[in-house]
User: Which sequence fits this backbone?
C-alpha cells in the first residue's frame, strides 16, 4: 500500500544524540572513591563517546568487536558504553566481583579486543593478563596516560556507525551458581524497547526532573538499563565509584537525588548508617529521594516498610541478566489511594507486574500452564522483546515452545497479574509431595533479632522425601538461640514448613557476587541424618 | 554473531492483549449523549474487538481493507479500532465535522469497505450514501440491529492476524484549509513507538492509576494516540459522546478523572460553566484532575494560568495529523521547582519540547538551519519514527532531504529545545522584510474584553510590502471599540506589529473544523486600500 511513515531504526545511538541535543546541559556527576567530584553533562558525555568511537576505530576495532570494561560507576564508564556501541561495537561489562578463573573464562569467551578498567583494578588486570588470549589493548580510565590520553587526539567529529537495529550492542554474562557463566547478547532494538518502557510512571518514572543515583553497578545486568533509560529521559545522573553508605547518603543530600536503585544489601547498610546518624544527633533524612527501586534479590518487608514510612515510593523489581533485566516492576495499583499502608506494603513486598511487552506464566512439572490464582506455584516462564533467545555462541536456543524462557524461579501469579517469587527451582524443598520455599523460610528467619544470614535446605527423610533444616549465622555478639528462631518462625510460616533442625554456623559458602552457594550446602548435607531419625 | 534476543513484532494487537491480560478488570466507561452510562472493561473491549475481527472477516474483509468510522467517543468505537486492526485491516476514523463534499471525497479516496457509524449520524449517512463508491456495509454502533447484531454470532475465539510491523493500521485525513484532504497512513510500528513515548512522565504520564477522559474526539488526529497509549498503561477510560461542559464536569467528579486532553475551546466552555456554578453556589472544583493536555491549536495564557492555579499540571502539546500527532509536549523543566508560577506559565504557554524520537529544526527561506536562540524564526521542520513519509496514494514523498517534513508552521526554538509556534507559514505577515505573526496578534486581540474572535491578515502596502489589519467579531451584546482593542494591543505586541486598521465584522468564514479561512479573507482583501494611503 502506498504511503506511510518515516524510516527510523531502533539504534542506541539515537539515545545519546537525543540526550546531548535536548538535555545537553543536564549534569552528569561522578564522585570518585577518593572523594573528588567531577561534573560534566550529557553534551560532554556524548562528545567523549564520539571521541572514543574515533579512537577505537583507529585501534583497529571493527563492527561487532567486543570492548570490555572492568570498572565502577562513573561518567567515563558511561561515555565508554556509548562510544563502544557507537562505532558498531559491543560493550561488554565485566562483573569485577567474580573469581579470577571466571573472569578469565568470560573475557576469553567474549573475545574482548580492548579492556577499559579502573586503576583500582590494576592488580586484577595484572593477574588476568597472562591468561587473556584476545585482548590487544588495556586502557585505564583514571590514569592520565590511559583514557584521557587515548581521547586527546580526537575531535569528536564523528558520525555513528549505521547498521541493523537487531545488531548486538552489549554483552553481559550471568553469574550462575553452577557451571560456566553464559553470555547474553543484547541488541540495539531490545535495549531500546526496554529503555522506553523503563521511563514510564509504572517503571522508574524518569523525566528530566529526576536526579538518579544508580547504586546498581554498571557491571551488573546492564545496570538495569538505566544508562539507556536515563538518556531517553534526560535525567541528571550521579555516579559513585564506591557504595559506602555514608558516601551515598551525603550524595543524596548534596545532589538532590530523587531516584535511586540497588540491591537490598545497600539499603541495609544505609539503614545502619542512618541509625548511627540518629544516635549521633546528625542528619538522617533522605532529602528529596522519592522513588527507590530494589531488585537483584527479594527485599525484606521491613526494608520496604521503613522506606515507605518516610514517604518514599518503593518499586520492587524482578528480572535477570537474560531479561535485560526488567521482568516485573512494582508500582501502585489502580486502587492504591484506598489501601492502608499495610496493604500497600503487602503489595510492594511481592515482585510486581509485567510492563507492556513482557509475558509471564507458571507451569507445573508437566509443562501445563497453571492458573493465576495466587496459590498455584510452578516454574516461572517469561517471554518478550527483551528476553533472551539464545546465549552467546550457544548452539541451540535457550527457549522452549512459543519462545517461553524458563527462569529457574518458582513463583505464583496473583489474579491481578502480580508475580511472587517463592523460590529458585533448584532450592525448593519437596516435603510429602508439597513444596516448601527455602527463600521464604530464610527471609522469615533473618527477621529474628540476632540472625545475620540464613540458608534453608532439604535433607533426606524416609517418609516425607525431604524435610527442611536451617543453617544460620549470628550477628556479631548476638546471643540468639535455636528456640528463639523457632519461636519467631512459628507465627510466620505454616507449621509443616518449620525446620526440623536449626544449626548455627560461623559462615555460609558464597559466590563472588555474594549469593549463598546452596549447591555446596546440599552436597555437604547429602548424607545428613536428622536427629529425630537417629536410633 | 550467534546469540540474541527474542522475536517480537511491534504490532498494535499486543497492546489490547496486554490490557486485557494485565488490566482486564480496569473500567472503560461510556456516557452516551442521552445520559445513559455503560460500563465495561479492558477484557470486555478486547473480547468485542475479537468478535468484530471475526465478523469483518465473514463480511469478506481482507488484509489492508479500510474500515471507516463516523462516530463519537465510546467504548464500541474503541473496540472497533482494535477489531478493525486485528484482522489485518486499517481503521479509518472520519472527521464528522467536515462538509459533505469533503467526506465523500475522503471515503471514496480511502476506498472504505465498511462504515461503522453512530445513529445520530444517520441523516449524514443517508446524504452521503448515493455518492460512496466502495462501501459495501453500513453498520450502526448504537442500534440493536447494527453492531450488537453483527457481533452476536461470534465467540471471540480468534487469533489476531499476523503480519509485518510496518503494515498499515490506521488512516486519518488532514483537514487542511486549502485543497483536498490528504490521507496519513499510520503503521503498527509507528503507532506503537508513539504510544510508548506518550506513556512517559514527560508525556501524558499514564499508569493504571490514571482515569483518563479524552475530550479530543476519536476522529481527530488518531485521538492523539490515547486509545493506544491508554492500553499500554492500563488506564481507566471514560468516554463521553458529547462535549458539553456540564456533562464533562459531572463525569470528572463522578468518575474520579485524573487526566484529560482536548483543544482550547472545550476548556473555555468549561470555565464558563464553572463560573456559572460559582455564581449559583454549586460545585466548581475539578475533583481529582491533575494533568490536562491541551493541543490542536495554541492555548491562551489565561487558560493555562487558571488551570495551574487550581494545582493542575498543564501539558501544552503541538503536533499534526502528519506527526501521529505528537511533535512536542510541554512538561516540567529540570529546575521547575525553583521557578515562580509566572515563570512556569511562561514555559507552558510555549509548545514544549520533543520527546525522544522526534527532531525539530527551523530553516530560513533558503533552507539553512537557524540557531536555537529563541529569536530566529523560520519554517518548522520535523522528522522521526512517527512522522509521515508519504501521503496515502501520493506519487512522491512528502519529505525533503534527510526525511525532514515541512510542517507549514513558523516557529522559533529556544536554547533549551522548547519550541514556540509563531504562525502558520502562509499566514505570516511580511512587513518591511520582517515577519509579523498573525497568530500572536489574534491571540492578543481576543484578550480584549468584548472580542470573541479575531483574524489578522496582511494587505498591500507600497512601502512595507504588507501591513496587518485586524478583523474582529464582538461577543454578543459587547460594546467594545476599535480604540479599546488598539489600547489593549499596545502593551502586548511590538509597536510596528500594531494593525493599521481594525474592522468589526459580523462573522468570519470558517472551515468545517472551526478554523478561520484565512485564504478566503486574503482573497476578499486582495485589492483593499489602506485608509492611510487614500488620496
Assistant:
Amino acid at each position: 500500500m502506498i504511503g506511510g511513515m518515516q524510516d527510523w531504526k531502533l539504534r542506541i545511538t539515537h539515545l545519546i544524540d537525543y540526550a546531548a541535543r535536548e538535555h545537553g546541559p543536564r549534569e552528569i556527576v561522578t564522585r570518585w572513591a577518593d572523594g573528588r567530584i567531577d561534573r560534566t553533562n550529557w553534551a560532554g558525555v556524548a562528545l567523549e563517546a564520539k571521541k572514543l568511537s574515533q579512537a577505537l576505530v583507529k585501534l583497529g576495532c571493527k563492527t561487532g568487536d567486543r570492548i570490555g570494561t572492568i570498572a565502577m560507576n562513573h561518567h567515563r564508564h558511561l561515555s565508554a558504553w556509548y562510544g563502544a556501541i557507537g562505532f558498531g561495537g559491543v560493550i561488554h561489562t565485566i562483573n569485577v566481583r567474580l573469581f579470577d578463573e571466571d573472569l578469565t573464562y568470560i573475557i576469553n569467551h567474549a573475545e574482548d579486543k580492548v579492556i577499559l578498567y579502573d586503576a583500582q583494578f590494576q592488580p586484577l588486570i595484572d593477574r588476568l593478563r597472562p591468561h587473556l588470549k584476545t585482548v590487544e589493548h588495556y586502557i585505564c580510565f583514571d590514569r592520565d596516560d590511559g583514557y584521557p590520553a587515548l581521547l586527546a587526539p580526537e575531535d569528536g567529529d564523528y558520525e555513528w556507525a549505521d547498521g541493523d537495529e537487531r545488531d548486538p550492542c552489549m554483552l553481559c554474562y550471568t553469574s550462575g551458581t553452577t557451571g560456566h557463566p553464559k553470555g547474553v547478547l543484547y541488541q540495539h532494538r531490545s535495549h531500546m524497547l526496554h529503555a522506553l518502557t523503563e521511563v514510564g510512571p509504572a517503571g522508574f518514572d524518569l523525566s528530566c526532573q529526576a536526579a538518579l543515583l544508580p547504586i546498581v553497578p554498571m557491571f551488573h545486568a546492564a545496570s538495569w538499563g538505566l544508562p539507556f533509560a536515563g538518556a531517553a529521559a534526560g535525567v541528571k545522573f550521579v555516579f559513585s565509584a564506591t557504595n559506602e553508605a555514608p558516601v551515598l547518603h551525603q550524595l543524596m543530600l548534596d545532589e538532590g537525588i530523587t531516584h535511586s536503585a540497588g540491591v537490598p544489601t545497600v539499603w541495609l547498610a544505609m539503614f545502619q548508617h542512618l541509625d548511627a546518624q540518629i544516635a549521633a544527633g546528625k542528619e538522617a533524612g533522605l532529602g528529596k529521594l522519592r522513588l527507590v527501586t530494589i531488585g537483584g534479590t527479594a527485599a525484606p518487608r521491613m526494608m520496604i516498610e521503613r522506606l515507605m514510612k518516610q514517604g518514599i515510593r518503593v518499586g520492587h523489581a524482578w528480572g535477570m541478566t537474560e531479561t535485560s533485566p526488567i521482568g516485573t516492576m512494582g508500582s501502585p495499583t489502580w486502587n492504591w489511594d484506598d489501601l492502608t499502608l499495610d496493604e500497600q506494603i503487602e503489595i510492594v513486598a511481592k515482585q510486581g507486574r509485567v510492563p507492556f511487552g513482557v509475558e509471564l506464566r507458571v507451569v507445573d512439572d508437566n509443562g501445563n500452564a497453571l492458573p493465576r490464582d495466587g496459590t498455584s506455584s510452578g516454574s516461572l516462564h517469561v517471554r518478550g522483546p527483551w528476553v533472551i533467545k539464545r546465549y552467546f555462541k550457544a548452539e541451540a536456543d535457550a527457549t522452549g515452545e512459543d519462545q517461553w524462557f524458563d527462569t529457574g524461579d518458582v513463583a505464583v501469579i496473583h489474579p491481578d497479574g502480580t508475580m511472587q517469587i517463592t523460590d529458585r527451582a533448584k532450592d525448593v524443598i519437596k516435603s510429602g509431595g508439597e513444596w516448601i520455599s527455602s527463600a521464604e523460610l530464610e527471609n522469615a528467619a533473618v527477621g529474628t533479632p540476632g540472625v545475620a544470614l540464613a540458608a534453608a535446605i532439604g535433607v533426606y527423610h524416609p517418609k516425607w522425601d525431604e524435610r527442611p533444616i536451617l543453617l544460620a549465622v549470628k550477628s556479631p555478639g548476638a546471643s540468639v538461640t535455636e528456640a528463639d528462631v523457632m519461636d519467631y518462625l512459628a507465627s510466620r510460616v505454616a507449621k509443616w514448613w518449620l525446620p526440623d533442625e536449626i544449626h548455627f554456623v560461623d559462615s555460609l559458602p558464597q559466590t563472588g557476587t555474594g549469593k549463598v552457594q546452596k549447591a555446596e550446602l546440599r552436597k555437604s548435607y547429602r548424607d545428613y541424618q536428622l536427629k529425630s531419625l537417629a536410633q
